[in-house]
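## retry 2 of 3
previous attempt timed out at serialization; input unchanged, resubmitting
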Amino acid sequence: MESYELVIIGAGAAGLSAGIYGARSGLNTVVLYDKIAGGTTADATLVENYLGFQK
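## retry succeeded, writing output
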């Protein structure tokens, strides 16, 4: 069984951001989610300044 230093529940914008920062800090990180990554933002027709995408 694997163990993690940082467990994030939810892959919305905040969860993905936390996962990125945790991993960049050297923590063994996992993001758990139910449906699709991106949360409700994934269903939006227009998102400005979304994490990880250049303008």
